[in-house]
Design a protein that fits this description.
single chain; mainly beta; seven-stranded antiparallel β-sheet; 12% helix; globular; binds zinc ion
Length: 135
């Protein structure tokens, strides 16, 4: 997390954000029930400055800043027809970020993909290289 790329945005998660997290964690072959249980406790604490729907979370009062572990990812399309990838990051044992990026890198301003458009990554492990066009 880089503060220059983030805007503070203290709020509850939208129903759409909750549905997306539930979908992402519900399509894992590995057991992520420990993280699914965190979803109702999450608050949004900041969002990406570039216009994409990437958001950062906190559970308690402290934002977790440690190294990121990717626990779920998928590809889909936004309502605007932008091909997007979504990634759930965990830091220090807490869900800390829902990252959404344009696969083509052409456009940063788009909405969250609908869960019905999503396809999980086929290999149930962290992809070696995920493009991060919006950073
Ligand atoms: Zn962004």
């Amino acid at each position: 997390m880089n503060d220059q790329l983030r805007i503070p945005d203290e709020r509850s998660l939208s129903q759409e954000e909750i549905s997306l997290l539930e979908w992402l964690l519900g399509h894992k072959r590995t057991d992520v029930s420990e993280y699914r249980a965190q979803i109702p406790k999450l608050r949004v604490v900041s969002r990406c400055r570039c216009g994409c729907p990437t958001i950062d979370f906190a559970i308690g009062t402290t934002t977790r800043e440690g190294p990121s572990q990717i626990i779920a990812d998928a590809q889909g399309s936004s309502p605007e027809g932008v091909r997007v990838g979504v990634i759930v990051h965990v830091r220090e044992g807490e869900i800390s970020e829902l990252e959404v990026y344009s696969v083509t890198g052409e456009k940063n301003v788009f909405s969250l993909p609908k869960p019905e458009s999503l396809v999980p990554w086929l290999i149930d492990s962290t992809p070696a290289e995920i493009p991060r066009f919006h950073r």
